[in-house]
Backbone:
């Protein structure tokens, strides 16, 4: 019997014959083409629809913040620089700022406008301060920019404040014995020697009528009548006179008044 010209589709044990396999491949390729078409043609529209469903809204967000006050100074020409006197307190101001914020799906995405308004104006603090500078020539030949330089040039530590106890008219700066003591300002030495409870002491008269006193020294490097410049070595720290340990006792006198040296010293 002659063989048929076309193969007949047959099913055997759960799988297709050769003829059915070709048909399956064609069907699979058609499905893939359809899927690709749907992805590129339909998916963008679905994404746009999803975006359209996100809730978009504009909200007003308001913040308040403090406005700092400044300090207005009243210059006092008869007081040394460093002196301050409080006149009136400052008061903080207040400002309100409103932001128009766009939210998408509850998330802030951009700010579309900002508006600010002042709720309260700040009130400046008022302080009086000294403007006077005692002019001094320094040991390096320059001109001083401060009225009184630190006589220990930052060495030592404060062991007693101004008026720390009754009759204490200066400050005490503790330092090792022999630490150099320097003139706080240019002037003429009016006393260099033993001075009662101050022990070995130096007093310098300055051009504007003020005086500085350096007490309890172990040694003196100047004599009465000598002119010294700011920063010149005049003594060495000790514990002479009414003293319980090595330190410099420093006083600043203007006429009959005692001033707190810490206020005026270049720290």
Residues:
């Amino acid at each position: 019997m002659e063989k048929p010209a076309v193969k007949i589709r047959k099913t055997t044990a759960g799988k297709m014959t050769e003829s059915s396999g070709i048909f399956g491949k064609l069907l699979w390729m058609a499905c893939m083409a359809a899927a690709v078409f749907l992805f590129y043609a339909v998916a963008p529209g679905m994404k746009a629809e999803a975006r359209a469903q996100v809730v978009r809204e504009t909200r007003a967000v308001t913040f308040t913040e403090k406005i700092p006050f400044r300090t207005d100074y009243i210059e006092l020409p008869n007081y040394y620089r460093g002196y301050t006197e409080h006149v009136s307190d400052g008061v903080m101001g207040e400002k309100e700022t409103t932001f128009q914020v766009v939210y998408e799906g509850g998330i802030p995405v951009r700010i579309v406008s900002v508006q600010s308004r002042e709720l309260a104006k700040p009130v400046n603090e008022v302080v009086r301060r000294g403007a006077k500078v005692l002019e001094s020539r320094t040991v390096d030949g320059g001109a001083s920019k401060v009225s009184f330089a630190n006589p220990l040039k930052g060495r030592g530590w404060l062991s007693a404040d101004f008026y720390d106890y009754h009759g204490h008219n200066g400050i005490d700066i503790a330092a090792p014995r022999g630490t150099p003591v320097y003139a706080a300002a240019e002037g003429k030495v009016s006393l260099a020697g033993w001075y009662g409870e101050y022990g070995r002491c130096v007093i310098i008269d300055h051009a504007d009528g003020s005086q500085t006193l350096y007490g309890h020294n172990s040694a003196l490097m100047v004599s009465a009548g000598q002119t010294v410049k700011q920063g010149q070595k005049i003594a060495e720290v000790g514990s002479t006179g009414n003293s319980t340990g090595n330190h410099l006792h420093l006083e600043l006198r203007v006429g009959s008044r005692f001033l707190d040296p810490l206020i005026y010293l270049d720290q």
